[in-house]
Amino acid sequence: MVIKGPKEAFTENISTNISLIRKRIKNQNLIVESNNTSKRSNNEVYILYIHDLANKEMLLKIKKKLDSMDIDSIQNLSLLEQEIEDRPKSMFPL
């Protein structure tokens, strides 16, 4: 039990995590979209954004990159980040 600090945390269950986010961001414009990105392991990537605040061009660019990815599995978020970056050989994350 924690006396000081957060009482909630993300889990491995995506529906629980989305519920936690919806509990904090009480906005009807919060959109949740899923995308099946990998061939063999069927990893799902969820894109969450607030419809009227999101940059539409950036959102389309991210969706296009996720759709065009040709990988078997996503092992972690860092690898996914490298796949969707414009300059994957950059020393700094973009």
Mean pLDDT: 85
Gap between N and C termini, in Å?
37 Å
Topology order in helix (H) and strand (E) letters: HEEHH
Helix content: 25-40%
Poorly predicted runs: none
Main-sheet strand order equals 1-2
Q: What is the strand tally?
A: 2
Largest sheet: 2 strands, antiparallel
Assign the structural class, choosing from mainly alpha, mainly beta, alpha/beta, alpha+beta, or little secondary structure: alpha+beta
Kindly provide the radius of gyration, computed on alpha-carbon positions and rounded to a whole number of angstroms.
Answer: 16 Å
Q: Output the number of helix runs.
A: 3
**Percent of sequence in beta strands:** 5-15%
Shape label: globular
